[in-house]
Amino acid sequence: MTAVAVGTNRIDPYLIPALDGVAYGLLVFVAASGLVLCFGVANILNLAHGLLYAIGGYTAAALLDGGWASLALALAVGVLAAAAAGVLLAGLLTPVATGSHLSQALLTFGVALAGGSLLVAGFGPDDPQVQVPATLEGSVMVAGHRYAAYRLVFIVVAAVLAAALYLVVRRTRAGMLVRAAVDDPEMVACLGVSPARIRAGVLAAAGALAGAAGVLGAPIIGPGTDTADTVLLLSLVVVVLGGLGSMAGTLLAALAIGEIQTLGVALLPAAAPFLLFAAMAAVLAARARGLAVRWRTA
Amino acid sequence: MPLTTPWRSRALTAALLAAVLTTGTACGDDAPGPSAGGSIKIGLLASLSGTYQAVGTEIRDGFQLYLDTHDGKLGGRQVDLIVADEGNGAQTAVPAATKLLKQDRVSALTGIVGGGSVAGVTPVLNETKVPLVGSNGRPELKDVSRIWHTSYLSDEPGAAIAQHVRDNVKGSVYAIGPDYQGGWDELRGFTDAFSKIGGKLANADGKTTFTPFPATTNFLPYFARIKASGAAAVYTFYAGSAAVDFVKQYAQSEIKDIPLYAAGFLTEGGVLNAQGDAARDIYSVLNYSPDLDNAENRAFVAAWKAKHDGSPTTYALASYDAAAVLDRAIGAAGSDPTPEAINTAIGQLGQIASPRGTWQFSTTTHSPVQKWYLRQVRQDGRALSNTVVGDLATVGR
């Protein structure tokens, strides 16, 4: 213990929180990107977004048994179930799709409450145990500190997901349609692409992302009665910090949240209760459009 | 007509929603029941929805178990048990309790998970002059003339384990807990007693570290500070999902080898299943463990296991004891067990035999004077279980 160089002592205690901020931030990114997509592209305020994550989380808890096959199965089932729930939501939202955000918020919030109760009725009120593959269960040494192996692997997986998401939005026809729908929805409709189909597609994609985040993030933000609220809250903060429609802004905001929640808390534990919301208020006051510009103007 | 709302208004919508969400939501419902001649109405208020649903369900089931094993009677009278949902706190608990007390006109009230709910319900109890035999939450109260608790005071677990930690830990102890009334009381109980007997806290400023509740889901930044403090042990209190997060992250963190002592709720009931192997070896202090060796407990555990998966928790036990208290008090209240007569009878009960061992109500606080046990999470057959490894102090005032 005394062998540690005095010079590194100042930074040393904050290495793990900083690393963990990246893991947490990337999880928030994957979880929130679906909401950003919905809100920014389909202009639908989906307050049931946290529920989609919870579906993934409960799927992970139900299917994971400590083996790799079960992880693949849980990921597939979780993504499909949450995407299906997204399509269902899109159907329910049809009457209020072009209406005010208030009616959308009321409808999706109702769905979130009912869905949350259904999950609790189905899986029980206790937080279920999530069993990750045995090789990831332990911890590894990172720069002389012990760190959860799962979180280290999660950083890599989530980074790959983020890159894939970027490529899909920038490079594929589906991504182009989605971006076109942001810029000029009337023109896209004139071209013969049904806005309803885009809406269903976007909500399905949002569901799939949230479901994937729910399954992979279950050991970090685990399934439980308040998971949906936690995830929705973090996602909304991402929207405020990062702005809509820009993957870079979303990523930046999510990573900022991750670091605020870990490194910020380690540095200023007394300010922990309001750090996140202080940051949100500061960004809104200084720059109401969020940290990054929209792709429309970029 | 633009189909999209301007970004600024969307940002504000999101910000407002974030603010609303932090306050949380809840809803409750209640079920009226018929009343029959020669019977007695008892109201049970517990969280059957929301964050504390697991605890509320245990409380309902514990009381029901006593009725089921006693022919549905308390004090020789057929019981008409009216169950109502407490929800997440006073906001939903007060209307539900008001209905039980004023509309259903129950002779006694029991249950109540949250301390805040108890505080909110107290004025209605005083107005209707009905006794409460609470089985969990217990806030700071000025007037306890009609309030009784079969559970404990929040600062008692910490006070009971302080001497043991002082004797067994060579070095300073880091105290950490959730930032709300329950957390303050639990941690204060430990730190007050611990410093009185010469114990030293490892926390940087000598004060307990409190984490935002329920917002904290990631404890790693706090673990980094504990590591840096050079603590020889950690004392904590968390319950529910925070307990799961804390324990799972602790086991994978760089402080996993630092002994962890806790108020028993950290590893009690359903959270232990969710924590799994991560909870192994954690020491905790509680007034009950399902493996206590006495006749009452063997009967209680056997009856519980016949109806439910797993072992009973301290929550179920406290509610079971609340039924036992009412059983004896109603029997002693004579031919006309009015709420006043029941309340007087509770005060004269003396020693109460219970699965936790014999206890009695304190004359000043109306909460139990009882023995506390040191438990450790160990393998018990296929499952992990809180195993009693020793007796701690008898606490109560």
Automatic annotation (TrEMBL), chain A:
TM ranges: 22-42, 47-64, 70-93, 105-124, 148-169, 201-221, 233-258, 265-286
Topology in membrane: Multi-pass membrane protein
Species this protein is from: Micromonospora parva
Subcellular location: Cell membrane
Primary location recorded for the protein, binned into one broad class: membrane
Record protein name field: Branched-chain amino acid ABC transporter permease
Coiled-coil segments on the chain, per record: none
InterPro entries associated with the record: ABC_transp_permease, BCAA_transport_permease
Family statement: Belongs to the binding-protein-dependent transport system permease family. LivHM subfamily.
Pfam families: BPD_transp_2
Transmembrane listed as a keyword: yes
Keyword annotations: Amino-acid transport, Cell membrane, Membrane, Transmembrane, Transmembrane helix, Transport
Automatic annotation (TrEMBL), chain B:
Stretch forming the signal peptide: 1-28
This protein's UniProt keywords: Signal
Domain Leucine-binding protein: 39-381
A Pfam family recorded for this sequence: Peripla_BP_6
Gene3D superfamilies, per database record: 3.40.50.2300
Membership in a protein family: Belongs to the leucine-binding protein family.
Protein name stated in the entry: ABC transporter substrate-binding protein
Organism listed in the record: Micromonospora parva
Lineage, broadest ranks: Bacteria, Bacillati, Actinomycetota, Actinomycetes, Micromonosporales
